[in-house]
What does this fold into?
Amino acid sequence: MSVFPALPEGRLGGRAGTVAICAIVAAHLFILPLPGGRLLLLAHLFAICGAVAFAASGTISPRVRAALLGVGLVGIRVSLGGLPLPAIDAARDLAVDPPNVQVTVAAVLAPLRGEQRVIVELGSARVLVSTPPNPQLFVGDEIECQLDFAELSGSSIERLRVRGVSASAQTRSVRLQGHRNFIEIIRNRFGDDIERVIPAPAGGLAAAITIGLRERVDERLATAFTATGLGHIVALSGWNVAIVLGAVGRALSGLPLRRRRWALVAAAMLFGIFAGASPSVIRASFMAAATLIGAASGRRGSGAIALAHAVLALTLLDPAIVFDAGFRLSALATAGLLARAQEWSNRAALMGEKFPGVVQTPWRFIGGDVAISIAAQAATLGVVIALFGRVALWSIPLTLLIAPLIPLATAAAVIAVVVGELASVLPSALLPLTSALAQPATALFQACAVVASEGAKLPGGALVVPRSATIPIGLLSTAIGWVALLRPYGSPPLASVDETENESAADRRLGQKLLAATCVLLLLGSLANSYASAAPRDTLRISVLDVGQGDAILVETGGRRMLVDGGPDPARLLTELDALIPSWDRRIDILVASHPHEDHLAGLPRLIDRFRIGGVLGAEERGGGPASAAWRRILDTERLQYRSVHAGDAFSLGQASISVLWPDTAYLAAEPTNDGRSLNNRSVVLRIDVHGFSALLTGDIEADIDPQIAARITTPIDLLKAPHHGSGTSASRLFITAADPRISIVSVGVGNSYGHPVAGTIARLSERGGLVARTDLQGRVVTVVDLETGAWHTSTSAGEMAVPSRAEIERLGSAFERVGLRVTDAVQPLRLADAPLAALGGCRLASATIRAWKAHGSFSRGVTTSS
It folds into this structure.
């Protein structure tokens, strides 16, 4: 016997729907900015409403009783289980500077500009913490850190509170104490397997869609999915769970219906747990299972009733879920589909019969999907406007492009997990085989990434609603959408059964052929793109990668590769490398760590699992921050061949000769001091020469080292990687005159807090006629040298750059010297006190000052001690 009062079954789910809707409304009231005591009093009042509903069963109408029951159930749940959100006074005791604390990672969010963002449990409160990218953190990790709580505005505090977070903090270093979540270890192992054989950013997208590791999606790609209204593709939701349940249902088609239903329920719950057991994943599993079981029962309105039961159960399990935007949109979209998807699909088919013949065939394939998308949009548009203040206008057509690929891509990703595990143990000679087996998944996920990235560039991509109008326009849109979904329509005329079956069978066969042809084309295109990305063996290719506020330079020649530094953002580094290195040849012969600063080292630790590393070169290992500590641990434990280099050393890479110009052994003999300048001046400086072409890679050397470097530059340089991101304390005229570069490349991040590059430095780099390129404005800068002719050119995403000839540089340089400026007099005085503290401390990550070296009084190999 049901506990719900009897109500007629309608599109809103009858009595279960009324209870669920009222429970959701009641749960939303706990968002009110009130002290905890008053909110608990409100919960007690709601619980009394539930008691009234049971006691007055014969004296009030069934609908009122259902409403009181929904309110009462939420009141009982909150009274017994605590508030779903932190009260406004919850953070009062947290906003202090505590000593080192041990906390547990409760959730891992998408990284932001290279920083990890995690939610940790501190006592009974949850805190959003920004951490350095190393060590990599997972759900369930126990960590020790010192939290520096942020001073937030009232609106920022409220935004955190509605996400269940009491405060925001950052930490400069993290000490990992252990892992306690076995499921998370397995999930992330599978994610590593996928990313090992599927190039970034497609690999991170595959890990998100298949396993729910959404934090692995490249930041720029995630932005593109959001901007195009395709976020539901990345978020593990009913869409993804339905694919799993559909596969399980087909595999168990021989079982009786009753057993198959229970198997679907078990599959949904197990997948939800394995995919992270976060509220959004559990919500998706509940909804998908309930909807499929309800539809299989064959009763009128059973889908809506199943959805209502699922929503109610989830609300009572965790009332905070009603504040999750994904939960709201998923529930509304599912309700909209149950209300009108089938009927509107039938009407779309009839509408297609009135189209011209040339349009009818494609409409038969997309008409139903268009109708389904419109039903989902009608149900959710108002909430989207109210929450986000914008509407993605290209969402429906882009969804139609991606939707057919997702089931196949998900199946291919499962194969990629197995292949990736094999790739971690197989010898290098067999890696092309694993790459070939993973190529279907690579092609499909790359296609999805291209659709989102290119879709974000389409004109008129979004309709932005003024902030003051989001709520009224959202409410109006919600009302219009649900009136359209719930108003009665006349039944569309039906074609004969035989005619419908014949057309459907023919359409399915044609659709399967078209999908197969599309997949073959995508596979061939992916293979061609991967081959084209590799550097030709008869060239030298130097790529200054676009890794943000940091350095990473890839040098390739004759099939050999050298990577100098890894930038501040591991995900961005991997995306850049995978765009240039074929997936079947993930090998770096020489890895150079110029000096131990975060903006040069943070990306390197993540390379070890992805690439085969031949050897590591460096000079200064002492000092630095969290990335440096992680890198020292890797050097101690991963059996990498490490060699310390200094001025006078030389080695070769293919036909290229590479000389080490700095640092001197005498300079390295002294302990580094606690400021960033000391480590900057210990940067490895490399000169590359091949067939008359020369390049100089300078790390972060400051101008006080310039005289020593200038004395060792015996012939002019063609390509200069500008020192220290173009800071005001680098690249003196003495140095620039000695190098006399034809092109200088400044590796720098967009909108960095240091003001890099400084206008004066850019002027000095260009005043002798040399060209200046910047990664913040032009992205990746690639120079290719033909080893047969010696000719070379430089290009960016905008096209080839017009690099001046050596004759032009000499002519302009002579004219510069004739104006009366003597080089020795033109060196700008560099006063340490005039430089900003952040610049002296080495380049930090974009929004978190990392000056770990300030806290260290002594340094030793592999160990950092505090003073």
